[in-house]
């Protein structure tokens, strides 16, 4: 697992916030499920932001949830395997608890937290943003198991689903995208298949899963700084995956640099997923504690 650079997370924050405006519909669905689907009298939420990084997505979730659940007590746990990021997150959200652990630790951690007297009777909400595509089959199994064990809700935002649209187009756009997409699958990561994979794993365990889009819509020169970093890092990953692309990449990058001044539109697709373990989808095919299945693309 590689931690994200804090300056990159800060650069993407306004872009992610803009994309998450489209996530609000799914978030409102989650809030309605919290209000309608919990025991009468439950007004306490234990929210675990997984892959919290430096806390930028946690701050967004905290603000939108408090605006909608002003009569609820909302407690935060920020989970990440990178201690340095969590130090920054702790300063950004002083009311939150931080836990340095891998996603695989989530089932045991959530059981321990929910049996502590301060969180007993709380509803569990898992959140994440910009995370799913770097996870493995084992990680997603831990997520579904956690939701199943505690009748929890999960709101997983801004997962890359592959593909991009650039205007003006370049003949190498598709080859660079294909190499980047392959790179996303390194070391057993589910890459752009992760949201689909999570939904099908949840449904196979009888949980309800719904989805929605949350694309980045970028435009140069206005988004020049962000686009320059985003495109150059994506290109580096593509060439890393397929070194034969090096020459084509150079020509592509020369054109993109001039378009960052003259005009460029980029759309990058993401998918949001909402999982509700309290509402049975009636499709259960496997036991409630899912076992790892095949890894890799479906
Ligand atoms: C792209 S960053 C997103 C951070 C934050 N959610 C945001 O939107 O700003 C992904 C984060 O997930 C963490 N991460 C990735 N895989 C993980 C795993 N298996 N267990 C725990 N943390 C993980 C990384 O350390 C990184 O901080």
Rough outline: elongated
Q: Biggest sheet, in brief? A: 8 strands, mixed
Secondary-structure arrangement, i.e. CATH architecture of the domain at 6-163 and 190-218 and 269-280: 3-Layer(aba) Sandwich
Instruction: Let me know the number of strands.
Output: 8
Helix share, percent? 40-55%
Oligomer: single chain
Radius of gyration: 20 Å
Task: List cofactors, ions and other ligands.
Answer: S-adenosylmethionine
- CATH fold field value of the domain at 6-163 and 190-218 and 269-280: Rossmann fold
Q: Give the low-confidence spans.
A: 286-298
In N-to-C order, the SSE pattern is: HHEHEHEHEHEHHEEHHE
Percent in strands: 15-25%
End-to-end CA span: 22 Å
Structural class: alpha/beta
Number of helices: 10
* Average pLDDT rating: 92
Mind telling me the CATH class of the domain at 6-163 and 190-218 and 269-280?
Alpha Beta
CATH superfamily of the domain at 6-163 and 190-218 and 269-280: Vaccinia Virus protein VP39
């Amino acid at each position: 697992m590689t931690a994200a650079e804090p300056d990159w997370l800060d650069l993407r924050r306004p872009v992610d916030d803009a994309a998450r405006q489209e996530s609000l519909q799914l978030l409102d669905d989650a809030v309605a499920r919290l209000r309608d689907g919990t025991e009468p009298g439950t007004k306490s939420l234990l929210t675990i932001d997984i892959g919290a990084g430096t806390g930028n997505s946690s701050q967004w979730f905290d603000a939108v949830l408090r605006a909608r659940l002003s009569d609820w007590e909302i407690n935060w746990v920020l989970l990440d395997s990178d201690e340095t990021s969590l130090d920054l997150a702790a300063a950004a959200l002083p009311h939150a608890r931080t836990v340095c652990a891998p996603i695989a630790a989530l089932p045991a951690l959530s059981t321990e937290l929910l049996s502590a007297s301060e969180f007993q009777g709380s509803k569990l909400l898992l959140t994440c943003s910009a995370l799913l595509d770097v996870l493995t089959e084992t990680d997603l199994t831990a997520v579904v198991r956690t939701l199943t064990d505690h009748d929890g809700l999960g709101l997983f935002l801004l997962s890359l689903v592959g593909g991009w649209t650039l205007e003006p187009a370049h003949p190498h756009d598709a080859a660079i995208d294909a190499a980047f997409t392959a790179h996303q699958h390194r070391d057993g990561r589910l890459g752009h298949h992760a949201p689909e994979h999570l939904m099908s794993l949840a449904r196979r365990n009888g949980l309800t899963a719904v989805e929605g889009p949350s694309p980045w819509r970028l435009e140069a020169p206005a988004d020049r700084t962000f686009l320059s970093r985003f495109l150059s890092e994506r290109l580096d990953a593509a060439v890393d995956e397929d070194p034969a692309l090096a020459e084509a990449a150079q020509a592509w990058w020369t054109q993109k640099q001039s378009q960052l001044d003259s005009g460029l539109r980029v759309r990058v697709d993401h998918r949001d997923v909402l999982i509700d373990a309290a509402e049975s989808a009636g499709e259960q095919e496997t036991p409630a504690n899912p076992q790892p299945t095949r890894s890799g693309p479906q």
